[in-house]
Protein backbone atom coordinates (compact mmCIF):
# COMPACT_ATOMS: atom_id res chain seq x y z
CA UNK A 1 0.00 0.00 0.00
CA UNK A 2 1.35 3.40 -0.99
CA UNK A 3 2.05 5.93 1.74
CA UNK A 4 0.05 9.16 1.82
CA UNK A 5 1.97 12.42 1.39
CA UNK A 6 1.41 13.08 5.11
CA UNK A 7 2.87 9.68 6.03
CA UNK A 8 5.85 10.37 3.77
CA UNK A 9 6.34 13.78 5.39
CA UNK A 10 6.26 12.43 8.94
CA UNK A 11 8.67 9.61 8.05
CA UNK A 12 11.25 11.99 6.56
CA UNK A 13 10.74 10.83 2.97
CA UNK A 14 10.31 13.17 0.00
CA UNK A 15 6.72 14.42 -0.09
CA UNK A 16 4.52 16.88 -1.97
CA UNK A 17 3.62 19.83 0.30
CA UNK A 18 0.80 20.84 -2.06
CA UNK A 19 -1.13 17.66 -1.20
CA UNK A 20 -4.72 18.67 -0.24
CA UNK A 21 -4.56 16.93 3.17
CA UNK A 22 -1.36 18.81 4.06
CA UNK A 23 -2.77 22.11 2.79
CA UNK A 24 -5.85 21.58 4.98
CA UNK A 25 -3.66 20.79 8.01
CA UNK A 26 -1.58 23.94 7.47
CA UNK A 27 -4.73 26.03 6.99
CA UNK A 28 -6.10 24.77 10.30
CA UNK A 29 -2.80 25.58 12.02
CA UNK A 30 -2.79 29.08 10.51
CA UNK A 31 -6.32 29.77 11.74
CA UNK A 32 -5.53 28.65 15.30
CA UNK A 33 -2.16 30.48 15.25
CA UNK A 34 -3.88 33.70 14.18
CA UNK A 35 -6.28 33.42 17.13
CA UNK A 36 -3.45 32.56 19.57
CA UNK A 37 -1.26 35.39 18.33
CA UNK A 38 -4.09 37.86 19.01
CA UNK A 39 -4.11 36.96 22.73
CA UNK A 40 -2.18 38.53 25.60
CA UNK A 41 -0.30 36.82 28.45
CA UNK A 42 -3.20 37.27 30.90
CA UNK A 43 -5.56 35.18 28.73
CA UNK A 44 -4.20 31.88 30.03
CA UNK A 45 -7.44 29.90 29.68
CA UNK A 46 -7.97 31.06 26.10
CA UNK A 47 -4.36 30.28 25.21
CA UNK A 48 -4.57 26.76 26.65
CA UNK A 49 -7.77 26.10 24.72
CA UNK A 50 -6.06 27.21 21.50
CA UNK A 51 -2.89 25.21 22.25
CA UNK A 52 -5.10 22.13 22.74
CA UNK A 53 -6.23 22.61 19.11
CA UNK A 54 -2.77 23.36 17.75
CA UNK A 55 0.08 21.57 19.54
CA UNK A 56 0.53 17.78 19.61
CA UNK A 57 1.15 17.82 23.36
CA UNK A 58 2.41 20.12 26.08
CA UNK A 59 2.99 20.00 29.80
CA UNK A 60 1.66 22.60 32.19
CA UNK A 61 2.79 25.12 32.99
CA UNK A 62 3.97 26.08 29.52
CA UNK A 63 4.37 29.63 28.22
CA UNK A 64 4.54 30.48 24.54
CA UNK A 65 4.66 34.25 24.07
CA UNK A 66 2.74 35.51 21.07
CA UNK A 67 3.44 35.71 18.27
CA UNK A 68 4.82 32.30 17.45
CA UNK A 69 4.61 30.39 14.20
CA UNK A 70 4.28 26.74 13.18
CA UNK A 71 3.78 24.74 9.99
CA UNK A 72 1.39 22.11 11.35
CA UNK A 73 1.60 22.34 15.15
CA UNK A 74 0.44 18.75 15.75
CA UNK A 75 4.01 17.48 15.39
CA UNK A 76 5.27 19.61 18.30
CA UNK A 77 5.58 18.07 21.77
CA UNK A 78 6.58 20.32 24.67
CA UNK A 79 7.55 19.25 28.16
CA UNK A 80 6.43 20.79 31.43
CA UNK A 81 7.62 24.33 32.04
CA UNK A 82 8.78 25.07 28.49
CA UNK A 83 9.11 28.81 27.84
CA UNK A 84 9.31 30.41 24.38
CA UNK A 85 9.81 34.13 23.99
CA UNK A 86 8.33 36.31 21.22
CA UNK A 87 8.57 35.43 17.54
CA UNK A 88 9.70 31.80 17.60
CA UNK A 89 9.27 29.74 14.41
CA UNK A 90 8.80 25.96 14.55
CA UNK A 91 8.63 24.30 11.13
CA UNK A 92 7.29 20.93 12.20
CA UNK A 93 7.07 18.77 9.08
CA UNK A 94 8.61 16.12 11.35
CA UNK A 95 8.43 15.86 15.13
CA UNK A 96 9.88 18.52 17.36
CA UNK A 97 10.30 17.36 20.96
CA UNK A 98 11.36 19.81 23.66
CA UNK A 99 12.08 18.63 27.21
CA UNK A 100 10.92 19.93 30.59
CA UNK A 101 12.12 23.34 31.73
CA UNK A 102 13.71 24.36 28.44
CA UNK A 103 13.84 28.12 27.83
CA UNK A 104 13.92 29.53 24.31
CA UNK A 105 14.79 33.16 23.52
CA UNK A 106 13.03 35.46 21.07
CA UNK A 107 13.09 34.79 17.33
CA UNK A 108 14.56 31.30 17.62
CA UNK A 109 13.93 29.09 14.59
CA UNK A 110 13.54 25.32 14.98
CA UNK A 111 13.44 23.93 11.44
CA UNK A 112 12.73 20.28 10.63
CA UNK A 113 11.90 21.16 7.00
CA UNK A 114 14.59 20.58 4.38
CA UNK A 115 14.97 20.49 0.59
CA UNK A 116 16.91 18.28 -1.82
CA UNK A 117 20.42 19.49 -2.61
CA UNK A 118 20.16 18.46 -6.25
CA UNK A 119 18.62 21.33 -8.29
CA UNK A 120 16.55 18.97 -10.47
CA UNK A 121 15.10 17.22 -7.44
CA UNK A 122 14.42 20.60 -5.81
CA UNK A 123 12.62 21.76 -8.97
CA UNK A 124 10.17 18.87 -8.56
CA UNK A 125 8.68 20.76 -5.60
CA UNK A 126 9.19 17.84 -3.26
CA UNK A 127 10.73 18.38 0.15
CA UNK A 128 11.55 16.32 3.22
CA UNK A 129 12.27 16.76 6.89
CA UNK A 130 14.23 15.38 9.80
CA UNK A 131 13.05 15.46 13.45
CA UNK A 132 14.58 17.68 16.12
CA UNK A 133 14.92 16.72 19.78
CA UNK A 134 15.83 19.27 22.45
CA UNK A 135 16.44 17.91 25.94
CA UNK A 136 15.35 19.15 29.35
CA UNK A 137 16.69 22.32 30.98
CA UNK A 138 18.23 23.60 27.73
CA UNK A 139 18.70 27.33 27.23
CA UNK A 140 18.57 28.62 23.65
CA UNK A 141 19.59 32.26 23.18
CA UNK A 142 17.67 34.71 21.01
CA UNK A 143 17.90 34.38 17.25
CA UNK A 144 19.46 30.91 17.29
CA UNK A 145 18.62 28.56 14.42
CA UNK A 146 18.33 24.80 14.97
CA UNK A 147 18.61 22.90 11.67
CA UNK A 148 16.90 19.64 10.63
CA UNK A 149 17.90 16.41 12.36
CA UNK A 150 19.68 18.00 15.33
CA UNK A 151 19.51 16.59 18.86
CA UNK A 152 20.44 18.85 21.78
CA UNK A 153 21.23 17.11 25.06
CA UNK A 154 19.86 17.96 28.52
CA UNK A 155 21.29 21.06 30.17
CA UNK A 156 22.99 22.40 27.03
CA UNK A 157 23.30 26.11 26.30
CA UNK A 158 22.97 27.49 22.78
CA UNK A 159 24.40 31.00 22.35
CA UNK A 160 22.33 33.81 20.89
CA UNK A 161 22.48 33.82 17.10
CA UNK A 162 24.07 30.36 16.92
CA UNK A 163 23.34 28.19 13.91
CA UNK A 164 23.21 24.62 15.17
CA UNK A 165 24.06 22.25 12.33
CA UNK A 166 24.94 19.12 14.33
CA UNK A 167 24.10 17.41 17.61
CA UNK A 168 25.02 19.13 20.89
CA UNK A 169 25.99 16.90 23.83
CA UNK A 170 24.31 17.20 27.23
CA UNK A 171 25.73 20.05 29.28
CA UNK A 172 27.69 21.57 26.39
CA UNK A 173 27.72 25.27 25.51
CA UNK A 174 27.88 26.12 21.81
CA UNK A 175 27.90 29.40 19.90
CA UNK A 176 28.66 30.79 16.47
CA UNK A 177 28.03 29.88 12.84
CA UNK A 178 28.25 26.98 12.64
CA UNK A 179 27.78 26.44 16.37
CA UNK A 180 30.90 25.09 18.07
CA UNK A 181 31.69 24.23 21.68
CA UNK A 182 32.99 27.09 23.78
CA UNK A 183 34.52 27.05 27.22
CA UNK A 184 33.10 29.04 30.07
CA UNK A 185 34.78 30.63 33.03
CA UNK A 186 33.79 30.21 36.69
CA UNK A 187 30.93 32.74 36.31
CA UNK A 188 29.50 30.92 33.31
CA UNK A 189 30.62 33.54 30.80
CA UNK A 190 32.49 32.65 27.63
CA UNK A 191 36.25 32.79 27.79
From TrEMBL:
Residues annotated as transmembrane: none
InterPro entries in the record: Hexapep (IPR001451), Hexapep_transf_CS (IPR018357), Hexapeptide_acetyltransf (IPR051159), Mac_dom (IPR024688), Trimer_LpxA-like_sf (IPR011004)
Pfam hit, one: Mac
Alphabetized UniProt keyword annotations: Acyltransferase, Nodulation, Repeat, Transferase
Xref: Gene3D superfamilies: Hexapeptide repeat proteins (2.160.10.10)
Domain (Maltose/galactoside acetyltransferase): residue spans on this chain: 6-60
GO molecular function, one term: acetyltransferase activity
Signal sequence bounds: none
Keyword Transferase in annotation: yes
SUPFAM superfamilies in the record: Trimeric LpxA-like enzymes (SSF51161)
Domain of life: Bacteria
GO cellular component term, pick one: cytosol
Family: Belongs to the transferase hexapeptide repeat family.
Role summary: Acetyltransferase implicated in the O-acetylation of Nod factors.
This protein's name: Nodulation protein L
UniProt organism field: Phaeobacter italicus
Source organism phylogeny: Bacteria, Pseudomonadati, Pseudomonadota, Alphaproteobacteria, Rhodobacterales
Protein encoded by which gene: maa
